[in-house]
Amino acid sequence: MYKIKADKLASFFNNFSIPMLFLWSLWFLYPLIVSGFVSDDSYISQVRGMLYFSDIGIFDRIAQQVSYELSMGRPHAINWIFLLLYFYLIPSLFVHKIIIFMIIFLNIIFFKKIIEFLSESKKFSIFIAFLIPIFFQFRFWHDPILAFPTIPAVSLSIFVSLYLLIKYLQTNKNLFYYIFLFVFTISIQFYEIYYLTIIFSFLILYFFNKSLKKSFILIALPVALLILSIFLTSYLRFDTPGDYPGHSFNLEIIPVLKAFWIQTFASFPSSWMLTDSFAHSEIKSISYIDFAISLSFSILLVRSLINFQYSFKKYNATFFLIFSLLLLLAPAAIIAITGHQNEIILAGLGYGYIPVFLQYFGLSVLLVYLIFYLIKKIDSSLIRQFTFIILVILITLITSVTRHENFHVVEKSNQIYKYPRELLKSSLDKGLLKNIESNDLVIRNQNFPSDHYWFYSMNAKRIINTCSLNIDSKFIKGERVKELPKKTENFMQEILKNKILKVNKLSTGKGYIPEDKYPFCIEYKDWDNIYGLSYFMNLKEQKIQVLLAKLTLDDETIKPYYNFKFKQFVIYDSEADSLSQFDSEILFDFNKTLRLHKSKNINPDEMQSLKLDMVSIHFENFHPEEGMGSYLRWSSGNSKLILINRSNAPQKSIISFTILRPDNTELELFTKYKSQTNTKKILKALEFNMNLILDPGLNEVQIFSNSLKISNGDPRNIVFGISDYKVKILD
Fold first, then answer.
1. Which residues contact 76 (CB under 8 A, 6 or more apart)?
2. What is the largest CA-CA distance in the chain?
3. Which 8-state DSSP code applies to residue 641?
4. Domains of the chain
5. How do residues 288-315 score in pLDDT, each as one tens digit?
6. What is the pLDDT of residue 520?
7. Which of 171, 177, 325, 492 is 20 to 30 A from 409, comparing alpha carbons?
8. What does DSSP say about strands 720-729 and 565-573: parallel, antiparallel, or unpaired?
9. Could you please report the per-residue DSSP string of 664-704?
10. Is residue 500 a contact partner of residue 476, using CB atoms and an 8 Å limit?
11. φ and ψ at 3, to 5 degrees?
């Protein structure tokens, strides 16, 4: 009876392997289906918006990108042809995710066929195919499944190439070899990791022919093509200053070994759980249904494997192990010696660069082989039953925990990449920007990838001139622009003509402009209208309110410091999916809308808090604002508070703030207003209250210190911080 049941299980796996494998892969990778455009994909997927600004077609844009990549020493044209065409033709997020899933599934299918060839057992390859998906763990960092479709595509091209070579060896039909050469020639221009194909191809040739001479003859032409590609790449890189990390190499033994170990370990199940990236999911929150499915799968797989009657030939086993070890270790070795080495080391254990996708396949083969080998060495029925229980528990835990953690990673990434994009798109689809003309400007903070200027134009299907208040766009060929023409026929055309680069530098990076200075794009030309766009999100409930306000600027006397004022505004509410127009009697401060907490909604009470103050506070030579509610800015030692009095008379006021020195060293701080200078010695923190009489217009309070910078590794040379700053008018 026991033998009959075992045979039935094995037969079930064999007869329904592909449909069951598809359903199993779909269930396990369902978190992928509900994820957004992640990482680089979030920008490249806006390619249609990019084309509006370039005023060229997709093929001209591809030619530009390929030319640029060549100038940077990367002759991998196929990669950018694939990416740009792919996202141009597939703008739908859902369709994109389905395609990626199918590419991953095809990876599993073709890999299964390769394992079947090496093991000479269809059933054994089925076990491995079913086990592969549970190795796919998502990371909030360079993830090859959630983002970077090039990687699954390159991996598929590797496995397809090997499969074509196998078919040639099995059938002796030259057509398969010619197709193999074609795929190989195309794919070596795809991505560098494809170069590994030559090693696996030689192994398969030698495995089949058992002759070095025959193997070398068949591999000679692919090797020649590969050498030509490497020579071209090396020539271009020798003559170009490209800063792509893959261009550089570091062969110091200790860093190489560290990076190699971290990259290899990243392929092991649940390795992501060891990272300190963000709070991981709780095991106890795994649903009973998911656990039951994982348990059923584990029992079925392990029972079938334990009762599988098969013996590796010594020759087969050797090549099987070599193949799996190379697939596991070779990508890690390549990453370990390149410029990605330091990135991997700094990231730490649990992280893995994108070629980890290939390593999942290598490790799955190796572990299944070792499990099978271990089982065959056990003679005792009691120990076999104990082994069965242990394997079921391990596979169940790995399956359920990994899938649950994948959902958690997706949910976290969706709060950055998916929900803001979808919700903002809803407001644009409703017509939020329908009245924006070609000579109007929209200003906003660029907080998410969907805040990119391509996104607005892509959805409006025309050029929308946008400007980021928190990102420096004032560059020409990498140099800061001091003067630009005030009046031009077309803002973006002038941008392109003068090769002005809109550089995406975050607030902590080089190139950030002071938040309270006029960005160059505002004074770049005479705009007909300037609008401000701000939104307030409840990401947990996936709700959004978007405010679009028609702005007026402060007069010339208080430039370059700005306050964007508004009375007329439109609000989009995602819950009602409607636009509401307002024309207030009260002046509001657009700057304040950018400071509202993301979970808040605009309501009458909130709007009252947005009223324009008689006195406003601005900052010079401070680093960008951090945090929410309490507000915090850091200084490198010599900064100013700019107080703007909008009335026609002096105002008695109290300015209050807290000075921070986040170490145990003493800070000597000077404050100067007009001719009066005060000195304070501060340890950790000190609250300040300054009674000031503010003249109409601009008033400066100098805050400076000669104390040494804090030794905390911060590249900004932090000397002190200022927080909880506010102004109170006494009259």
1. 69, 189, 190, 191, 192
2. 100
3. E
4. 2-45+91-416 (no CATH), 419-612 (no CATH), 616-729 (2.60.120.260)
5. 888 898 888 888 888 887 777 666 676 6
6. 64
7. 325
8. unpaired
9. SS-EEEEEEETTEEEEEEESSEEEEEEEEEEPSEEEEEEEE
10. yes
11. -65, -40
